[in-house]
Amino acid sequence: MQNTTILDKLYLTAQDLSELLNISVGHSYKIIRSLNNELSEQNFLIIAGRVPTAFFCEKYYGLKQN
Predict the structure, then answer these.
(1) Phi, psi of 62 (to 5 degrees)
(2) How far apart are CA 45 and CA 55, in angstroms?
(3) Which residues touch 23 (CB under 8 Å, ≥6 apart)?
(4) 16 contacts 32 by C-beta, under 8 angstroms
(5) 31 or 6: which carries more pLDDT confidence?
(6) Helix H segments across the chain?
(7) Long-range contacts for 48-52 (Cβ within 8 Å, ≥24 apart)?
(8) Dmax over Cα atoms in the chain, in whole Å?
(9) pLDDT band for position 26 (50/70/90)?
(10) What is the pTM of this model?
(11) Are 6 and 16 in contact (CB under 8 A)?
């Protein structure tokens, strides 16, 4: 059995962000909406209520995943 973490997922949900950042789910949706708006402005396709993990890590932690 493989041990995986939240950050191993391709997309993060509001619940995932809530657990990672210790914030409410409602605030997580605001963060996701903001990040998805930024992606949309760059002509990327988005999934409502989810944000790509790599983009979240880059924007929030300043990390670039390989």
Answers:
(1) 75, 20
(2) 13
(3) 17
(4) no
(5) 31
(6) 14-21, 25-41, 53-61
(7) 49/13, 49/14, 50/11, 50/12, 50/13, 51/11, 51/12, 51/17, 52/10, 52/11, 52/12
(8) 40
(9) very high
(10) 0.85
(11) yes
